[in-house]
Write a structure and sequence with these properties.
By secondary structure, the chain is of the alpha+beta class. The protein contains seven helices and four strands. The chain has a domain at 31-129: Alpha-Beta Plaits (2-Layer Sandwich). Helices cover 36% and strands 12% of the residues.
């Protein structure tokens, strides 16, 4: 594999990563407001500040409490904390550097919390999981099909490799909880 092929492959991988990041950023950053007079589960079904999967869970009526992430435009305020606990919720973590809170809420309280101006988005708090082996997710397994009779089998011999790690440092200051909570 020559350096031109490596650059083309790297460019494709980076383009895909950037597109996935853009889609994620747009979905998290959507901001809108709930009309007055809409409360409870009915309001959750139409509020764009509530993720679709959370709306579906609320509408199914199967959950007595939901674990959610509340995204805020600034560091979470004490009035938001009071609103969460006052609605029967429990605060699990406050994130002051990335502006959000991890909380447990009754499903009926989600729409009222989402209607607040100090809330930009509410989504289910889901467990992270591995999405695949790096060879598959980066497209490296597909390169083996690009060999020709003149180049032979492409196996990476003699090629320098750069590794991009998408891991998370859980001890990074951005992920530390608020000491007051």
């Amino acid at each position: 594999m020559n350096s031109r092929m490596v650059k083309q492959m790297s460019s494709r991988v980076m383009t895909k990563l950037l597109m996935m990041g853009l889609v994620f950023a747009l979905s998290v950053a959507s901001v809108s407001f709930t009309p007055r007079g809409t409360t409870g589960v009915r309001a959750a079904s139409s509020n764009p500040k509530i993720s679709v999967d959370l709306r579906n869970l609320i509408n199914s009526g199967s959950a007595s409490q939901v674990s959610v992430i509340i995204r805020t435009p600034t560091a979470p305020t004490s009035t938001l904390s009071s609103a969460v606990t006052g609605s029967g919720g429990t605060i699990k973590k406050k994130y002051t550097k990335i502006y959000g809170m991890a909380v447990q809420l009754p499903p009926a309280a989600v729409a009222n919390i989402a209607a607040r101006t100090d809330v930009t988005y509410i989504a289910l708090d889901r467990k992270m999981q591995v999405t695949g082996h790096p060879e598959t997710t980066t497209g490296a397994s597909l390169v083996r099909n690009y060999g020709t009779p003149s180049t032979g089998t492409i196996d990476g011999h003699g090629i320098g490799i750069a590794i991009l790690d998408s891991g998370i440092d859980a001890t990074h200051h951005s992920f530390l909880t608020d000491p007051a909570n």
